[in-house]
Each structure stands twice: as structure tokens, then as C-alpha cells.
Peroxisomal biogenesis factor 11
Amino acid sequence: MAPTYADHLTVVKGFCDKADGKDKLTALIQYACMFISAGEPGNIKKIQASVTAARKVFRVMRPLELVTPLLIQLGYTGKQPVLLEAINKVKAILMAIYFGADHVVWAHQIGLISDKKIGERYQKLSLWSWALGSVCTIAAEGWQITAADVARKEGETEEEYGKRMEEVKKQINHRLFILIHALFQAALAAGLLQVAPLKPRTVGFLGVVASAMNCYMLLPAYPKMAAKPKTQ
């Protein structure tokens, strides 16, 4: 049974209820404006600047949200390989710095901090943290894809092996999607930092793709369909 109109609306509402969903949706608009304007002055460029500023509100308290798990569990849990857990901890710290430094940039943009050099310094710190956090995601997801257990276990029947492989394939496809998204984000950060000499329209394209993928990952699951009653 195909999803109904009401189901689609429920999913959209669930997405819009999330602060992160609103952030990623406005990011999609921001980078779409960058792509259309190609960095040239005009009304589209003004819309881009306005939307960029509007995103900041949805990021309040994000640094605390990211570091709280690290503060609760200071050491290693032992549930994952030590190196993989270390990569994830470093990623969380980098992303907390990314959002925290972006708050300082926001404070500069609204006039609370007048020193232009501070705004520029924290802008670079924010983008570098985002880029390196994306690299951590690439490393962590790549590790887990290569470590996926695809060997047949002793005593496992053909049916059991087939079911397990279906689950493994789903996990690998999900991790590949996250890895590709992280590659786009790393390239986007490099473009914004001008580490790679990318034109504004190219940066805008990377931003649109990365934001669209982010929105897709934040979409809630569709309501489960009720089973059809059996006919007598």
C-alpha cells in the first residue's frame, strides 16, 4: 500500500519540528542562492546573506549538545575498537568547536563584537573544524564498511546467511550514503576556505547537494501501513 497524502504531510511535519531540520532546510536555500547568484551582487545575494544569518538561531546550544556525551563518558566504553571510538570523540569535539566558533561569528555579524579580525579568525576556525570533522566521519564510516562481517558463520543455514547479508547490505548502503555526504561536506568546507580554488557557483552546487542529503537523512520514517484485513 502506497503512502497517503496524510502520511507525506506527517513526515514533512516531523522534519519541520526538528531544529536541525529547519537549519538544514535553510542551508539548502542559502546554497541554492549562492549557486544562482554565482557570488555576484544583487537581490539573490542579499537573500543568501539573510538566510545565512537566520540559520544561526537553530544552532543555539549545539556545542553543549555535542560535548555532553563526552563529559558523561570521559573514558572509552569498550563497545567499539579504541581507534574508532577515539575518531568519534575527536569528531564530536571538532563539531562542537565548529558550532561554538560559528556563534562568535554570529556575535560579530550582529555587532556584539566589533573587531573584524576576531570575526575572520573564528570563521576560519569554524570552517576548519567542520572540514576536519567531516574527515573524521569519512574515516569512521570507511572503517566500519570494511569491517562488515560478510563471511559465512559455522553452522549457519542458507536462509540465516541470506537474512544476515540483507541486513549487512542495508547497513553498508547507509554508511556509504553518510560517507559520500561527508565527502561533499569536506569539499564544501574546502571551497569556503578557498583551500581549493572553487568558484562560488561550484561551492553553491556542493552546498545544495550536501544540504539535500542532510535533509533526506533527517526525514522521519513513514508511518507503518496497517495490514489489510483478510477476506473470508
DSSP finds eight helices and no strands in the chain. The chain has a mean pLDDT of 88. Residues 180 and 230 are 44 Å apart (CA to CA). The first helix runs from residue 5 to 16.
